[in-house]
Amino acid sequence: MIAEALTRLIRIGTDKSQVQSDKRNLQISNFICLVMAGALMLIVMFRLVVGGLEVWFYLPLIVEAIFFLTLLSVTRAGFPFLSRILLCWAPPIFLIIDFKILIEHVPVPETSHFLGFRIFQVAFSIFPFLMFNVSERGKFFTALLAPIVIVIAYDKILELAGVGYYDLGLKDSSYFYNNFRTMVALLIIGSAFVFLKRLLEKQELRNEKLIAQLEQQNLIIQKNSERALKKAYDRLSYHINNTPLAVIERDKDFKVTFWNKRAEELLGWSEEEAKGLKPQDFIVYKEDAPGAVRLMNEALSQKRDSNFMEIRTVTKDGRILNCLWYYSFLRDEHGELDTVLSFMSDITEQRKANYYLNERIKELRTLYNVSQLLTTSDKSMEEVFTLLPDLLPPGWQFPRECAARLSIFGNDYQTANYRKTPFAQPLEIIIDNNPVGTLEVVYLEQKPIESEGPFLKEERDLLTTIVQMLQVYIERKLEEEALMKTQASLSATINNTEIIIWSVDHNFLLTSFNEAFRKFLRESYDADVTKIQDRPFYAFSNADLWHERYQRVFTGEVFTFEETVGAIDFRYSLSPIIDNAKIIGVSIFADKSPYKISGTGNSTKPTKRSLT
Question: pTM above 0.85?
Answer without folding.
Answer: no
